[in-house]
Each structure stands twice: as structure tokens, then as C-alpha cells.
Amino acid sequence: MDSWIEIADQLRERYILSAAGSLDRMNTLVERLADFPKGQMAHAALAELRRILVRLSASGASYGLPGISARAADGERRCAVLIGARRLPAGPDLARLRSLLRDIDAELAAPPAGRHDGATGRTGAEPVPCVPRVAAVCQLAAPGSTGIQARRPAVAMR
Hints:
mainly alpha; 61% helix; elongated; disordered C terminus; Four Helix Bundle (Hemerythrin (Met), subunit A)
């Protein structure tokens, strides 16, 4: 059985791959906003961009990537202000959104804190906190153990 640390690292790697796909989609949406700055398509692109940023802001820190959560939350707030004002992003807004996406990209490319090496088992950084969905289906084994024991979830997971 994999140790908790290995499982956490695997989950973080999967998250990074998924977030990279979300980043690609967000870049496409920002370019769509630049190419088509008016109309229903632009409003839909801005709303979708905000939804993706909300997901990233809520999930990044759970996977040991708080910088992604912070930057995505900033982008989500900017989108919310635009949507609330019924305004579409103009030049400076688009430049800031692009900058935020570059920052998220840099966070995804950076080596994650909390990586563990094979020789000592630790780098000195704390392991990734348990992800809410993982917490619902696993529990730590005996105190001091790094293993986990699967248990049947009480509720269906989405």
C-alpha cells in the first residue's frame, strides 16, 4: 500500500494536470474576450472564466498550492466586479487577467513545497493537508503510521 505522502503527491500531480487544462481553457476565454469584446459570446466567456477561477481558488490550497488559490481568487473577484457592473473587460482588464494567468502558470510549473525524498522520507516541509474528498473515503491508520485504510464513504461522491 502506498504511504499517505505518496498518495498526497499523486493527488497533487493529478490536480496540477487538471489545473493545467483549466489554465489552457482560461487562456482561450481571455483571447475570446479580446477578439470578441461585445455581445452574448463575450458575456458567456467572462462567466465561464469566473466559474473556472472559483474552482481553482477553492481547491489549490487543498492540494498544497495556496498561491494558485490566492491568484485565482483575485481573478474571480475581478470577474465578479465586471459581471456586477455589466461590463466586459477592456485593455487594462485583459492585461491584468493575462498577468494572473501567467502567475497561475508559474505556480503550476514551480516544484511544489512539501515534496518528500526517498532517502529521508521528508524535506522538512509539512505534507499536503488531507483533501476534503479524500478525507471522506480514507482515514489515517494507527497513530504514527503514514498508511491509510480505505473505508466505504457514507455518501456518494461526485
